[in-house]
Amino acid sequence: MELERYRANGKAKPKQSKRPPRHRAGSWFIKGPIPFDWITSAAELPGKTLATGLALWFEAGRTKTRCVKVTPRLLAMFAIERHTGRRALQRLADASLVSLICKKGRCPVVTILNTETDRTDSPRTIAKSDK
Asked: What single DSSP character describes residue 106?
């Protein structure tokens, strides 16, 4: 068993940690916690809406405010095109996950809202299929 830890060149492989991976010092990350019901509500919406929502949470964590400006650079970091991002922001606003202020010729300003849903605080239960 111990021999499996060694490579052909004789160096030991690093042990696998049971903890989830963490970001490296100086690298970007999404600051949380993000409410689970917010994520599931955004995930139910079509297209890149969830990715756009995660971009909003990223910027909110970086700037330490719930009100963020959605710039083309922010959308590009998450591989979201400008028009796709606009549609996704509108979907998030229609689902009451964000409030949206759009002015002609300006970047949209978004405020992340609390979700007021009738879901329980626990994650959804997923039924196992009978075999």
From this structure: S
